[in-house]
Write a structure and sequence with these properties.
The protein is an alpha+beta fold and about 290 residues long. Helices cover about 20% and strands about 20% of the residues. It contains seven helices and ten strands. The strands form two sheets. It has a seven-stranded antiparallel sheet. A hairpin with a 4-residue loop joins strand 1 and strand 2. The protein is elongated and about 170 Å long. It starts with a helix and ends with a strand.
Length: about 290
């Protein structure tokens, strides 16, 4: 009987052990996946190790290097210190580019027409030329003389001046008259004619102004202008002006006439201050220049 009781005790103990194991196992296979995981605390550590400068341990569930490793992917880890590349600035749209004004070039002195400018815009931008008076003075002209030089190429008649003026080889002009040179001086008086060497304008006054600007090429470098008179003449326009270069100056005039040719004709006269006794001849040229008829 003693052996029977021992066997019953062993069987009861085994049964109790089996029941305990069954109760410890989960009732469903996915029970572990459904259990919530507490997020790591983001509060700054206050331990004495952190205050002393030691690096705090990584929160539970995070790798010690601070990288975030996506679960279930093959993507590389992204560390918090990784630099983010800057995006390029967007290119301006067509409307924005069109709204921006295009800078205009500054005309260079001595040129008849700067790129991007009309002839008159280049004229008004030339620092060598002052502002043209809104109401310019008019010259009192003498009675024109009878003797003229016929410039058939330009379609104009040029007053033929007497002594001490002399006719001279015209090239590159069609006609030319000069005063004798003074000893030690390169400048001397001259009267020339040719088709206008600039772009003719609708208004003969503008053509005369452009022609006056062009004549600075025939004066010493650095010459500037002071406007004197401007007026309509039969067949065109006449302008007189003073040209200054250093301590010297000249008295000059341009007469633009429509002689029925391809371009208007130009009569230009200039006399330096070293020959100022002949300055009155400038008005003789203005009054005597006319269209060939």
């Amino acid at each position: 009987m003693r052996d029977v009781y021992r066997g019953l005790v062993v069987l009861v103990a085994a049964a109790v052990a089996v029941v305990a194991v069954v109760l410890a196992l989960p009732s469903r296979p996915d029970e572990v996946a459904e259990r919530p995981v507490a997020a790591p605390s983001t509060a700054p550590p206050t331990s004495s190790a952190t205050a002393s400068g030691a690096v705090p341990a990584a929160p539970s569930g995070m790798p010690a290097d601070g990288a975030v490793h996506p679960a279930g992917t093959a993507e590389p880890a992204v560390t918090p210190s990784a630099a983010v590349p800057a995006l390029p600035s967007p290119a301006p749209s067509v409307s924005q580019a069109a709204a921006r004004p295009t800078p205009r070039p500054t005309p260079s002195p001595g040129t008849s027409l700067a790129p991007g400018y009309t002839a008159m815009e280049a004229f008004y931008a030339d620092a060598r030329l002052p502002e043209v008076p809104a109401k310019p003075k008019k010259a009192v002209l003498p009675k024109p003389g009878r003797r003229v030089l016929a410039d058939k190429r330009s379609g104009v008649a040029v007053p033929l001046l007497g002594s001490p003026w002399k006719r001279h080889r015209g090239a590159p002009f069609t006609s030319k008259q000069v005063l004798p040179k003074l000893r030690g001086r390169a400048e001397r008086g001259l009267v020339v004619s040719c088709p206008v060497p600039i772009e003719a304008q609708k208004d003969p006054r503008d053509t005369a102004l452009l022609a006056a600007r062009w004549t600075l090429n025939l004066h010493p470098k650095g010459a500037t202008v002071r406007w004197l008179t401007s007026q309509r003449v039969k067949g065109g326009w006449a302008t007189t002006y003073q040209v200054k270069y250093g301590k010297r100056s000249s008295f000059a005039a341009v007469v633009v006439l429509d002689g029925g040719m391809g371009k208007p004709g130009l009569v230009f006269a200039s006399i330096p201050d070293t020959q100022r006794k002949r300055w009155r001849d400038i008005y003789r040229v203005v009054s005597g220049a006319r269209v060939l008829g």
